[in-house]
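User: Let's play a game. I give you a shape written as C-alpha cells, and you guess the letters that built it. Ready? Here's round one.
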C-alpha cells in the first residue's frame, strides 16, 4: 500500500510502499496500537506511518551512519 506522510522533522512529504493491508491500516486508524495492528513492519516503517520520519532522517538528526548502525 502506498502511504504518503509529511516528516515532522523536515517537513518533506514522501510516499513509500509499505507492506500493509487496508484492514491493518484501518485497525490502527481506529485506535489499535500500531505494533499490534501491523506487527510485521519494521520499527522504521511504523515510525514513518506515525510521524513521516524516515530511517535516514533519524540517522541524520542523531548523527548516525546507517551503514554501521546494524
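Assistant: Ready! My guess for every position:
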Amino acid at each position: 500500500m502506498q502511504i504518503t506522510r509529511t516528516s515532522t522533522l523536515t517537513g518533506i512529504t514522501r510516499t513509500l510502499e509499505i507492506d500493509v493491508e487496508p484492514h491493518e491500516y484501518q485497525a490502527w486508524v481506529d485506535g489499535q496500537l500500531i505494533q499490534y495492528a501491523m506487527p510485521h513492519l519494521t520499527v522504521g516503517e511504523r515510525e514513518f506511518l506515525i510521524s513521516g520520519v524516515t530511517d535516514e532522517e533519524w540517522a541524520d538528526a542523531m548523527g548516525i551512519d546507517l551503514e554501521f548502525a546494524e
